[in-house]
Design a protein that fits this description.
With 84 residues, this protein is mainly alpha-helical. Helix content is 48%, strand content 7%. It has helices at residues 2-8, 16-22, 29-42, 58-63, 75-80; strands at residues 53-55, 69-71. Strands 1-2 form a two-stranded antiparallel ribbon.
């Protein structure tokens, strides 16, 4: 069981766009998602009417390929494109 978890917890290096939100240090995917949500909540970017939608500011638009709004279920896809 530890082997499956080791890959899941492996530190990933964020791209420059993602680092603007979560920082430059390599982090496990779980921490990256947590920091993304911290940022979204701190800046009140969760859509008021539909809580499943995330509204982009300039930093998030760089991660979300310029989209003004994405579903929270798509966030993982954009994170994957912004880590090594």
């Amino acid at each position: 069981m530890a082997k499956a978890n080791a890959k899941f917890m492996a530190p990933l290096t964020p791209s420059a766009a993602l680092a603007a939100v979560v920082g430059n240090n390599p982090l496990p995917r779980t921490e990256i998602v947590k920091k993304m949500w911290d940022y979204i909540k701190k800046h009140n970017l969760q859509d008021a009417k539909n809580k499943r939608m995330i509204n982009s500011d300039d930093k998030l638009a760089a991660i979300f390929e310029g989209k003004k709004q994405i579903s929270m279920f798509d966030m993982s896809k954009y994170i994957s494109k912004n880590v090594k």
